[in-house]
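Appendix B. Raw example, untouched.
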Amino acid sequence: MGQWPHSELEGTSRNVGEKERLVSGLIGGGLLLHSLKGPFSGLSAIKALLGLAFVQRAFTGHCAAYEMLGMNTHDQADTSAIGRPKIHSARAIKIERSITIQRSAKDLYAFWRQLDNLPTIMSQVRSVEPREGRRSHWVINTLPGAPTVEWNAEIINEVENERIGWTTVDGATVEHAGSVRFTPLNDNRQTRVTVTLHYDPPAGAIGAAIADLFGQEPGQKIAHDLERFKEAMESRTAVSQ
């Protein structure tokens, strides 16, 4: 990741980490572009103001709200060198969503395990490219008009027809870890699918609140994507397994 330009804020005045600055820039740019679409309104003005605030946050590395709250992510150690990013316990958010699907656990597991199927059911996933071993490369759509985000992930826990667990690697911009479990019901005629996600919110807790305001909160996305998964598998219109 390239270095940000020096600003007048040096040393202890910086309280936003490098990855968080990058995502702040993406969010800010997306909000600014989105505010220019359509007729001017109070909502578009709010988007523009928030966009400017996030761009300034990205450029300076300083967040006034963090300063008031006594928060600082600038000095947090980078754990990417050990190969698996740590999900910071002080900021990490846990999300869990479930749905019941009228298909066998075997069928659902087989579809999910073929990773390049996932963009057909995950609304923000542009592409998933399987790599050597258990690794894969993901390209994710962000806010409308904003650049995509990419990361590498690795499957670290897998039981055939039962569960798949993964984590991001190589210093991902959005560090997260998660799992999907397939629990048979009614003599395996139905399956309870449960997705659990632990993640550091993009641009910190403030970014999570902004994302929620504009409908990008991961819990909403997971619930929506599980509905798409259910519809695709029950109607047998999903990509062939």
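End of appendix B.
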